[in-house]
Amino acid sequence: MMKKQEQTDSSAIIRIHAMTVSVDGKTVLNGIDLQITSRSIHALVGPNGAGKSSLAYTLMGHPRYQIIAGSLIYLGQDYAPMPADERSRNGIFLAMQNPIEIPGLSVYTLLKEAVRARNVECFSLAEFSATIEQTADLLGISRAWLHRPLDSGFSGGEKKRLELLQMLLLKPTLVILDEIDSGLDVDALVQMAEVIKKYAVQNPHAGFLVISHQKRFLDIIKPDYLHIMQQGTIIHTADYSLINQIELGGYDAR
Questions:
Q1: Domain extent for 135
Q2: Is the Cβ–Cβ distance between 14 and 174 less than 8 Å?
Q3: Are the CB atoms for 59 and 70 separated by under 8 Å?
Q4: What is the mean pLDDT of the segment spanning 137-150?
């Protein structure tokens, strides 16, 4: 069943129109149109190499991903020239598919500085320490992890839990999850999907772009929209019921 997206709205979180992106002179995204409003969850699916992570990196402001045509509007402002750190401070968050290990920088220190940068006027170290420990408990993260180097020596599942820890502490407006479900066992997958679903309910100002290959994960989150991407282009948008046709007939079944 085809589902028409929200009509263009100046109050949308993000509006992408005819956006074309290149990396080192090679086009990786071509003519992307997408709008995400608050209270909406968008799932992005497609074969490996379709451009899903390229879209995520572009939205986050990775410097190698250059917008060469079209527009990227976030909260009514042109964000194409904005660097990644400024996008983060203004509420864009990317949970990476393969988080980078940073020896010498503890999880606690990174998150303390990130939260301080977002809320410098109301930052309290005592409140932060209590909050990070409570949030770690919610995700099943050992408090000892908080004082280890960021993602260094962590398993794939542990890294994904740490990505969600960042999301819950930073409280972003645009949440981009790039295969946050990969490498998880069934119990962890369900737990993390429920955490994301609860965040969406408790933060109605937020919108989501969820990249995933796992129907079980998406079934729990229940996206409002499903987008199919192939060869750097979103070729089809529908409601989430399309996932059943994809499972039976592949990405061309629509």
A1: 14-249
A2: yes
A3: no
A4: 89
- What is the arrangement of strands in the sheet containing 225-230, beginning at the earlier edge strand? 92-95, 174-178, 207-211, 40-45, 225-230, 233-238
Report how far residue 119's alpha carbon sits from residue 152's, in angstroms, rounded to the nearest whole number: 27
Is residue 175 a contact partner of residue 167, using CB atoms and an 8 Å limit?
Answer: yes
> Could you report the per-residue pLDDT of 205-222, keeping only the tens digit for each?
999 999 998 899 999 999
| Terminal CA-CA length for the chain | 9
Which amino acid is present at 74?
Answer: Y
Pairing of strands 77-78, 65-74: antiparallel
CA gap 175, 220 in Å, rounded? 17
Q: Residue 122: its pLDDT value, please? A: 66
pTM value surpassing 0.85: yes
Structural domain tally of the chain? Answer: 1
CATH number, domain containing residue 114: 3.40.50.300
Q: What gap in Å lies between CA 64 and CA 58, rounded to an integer?
A: 9
CB-count burial class (<10 Å; 0-12, 13-18, 19+) for 120: exposed
Would residue 9 count as lying in a domain? Answer: no
241: in domain: yes
Measured distance CA(99)–CA(174) in Å, rounded: 19
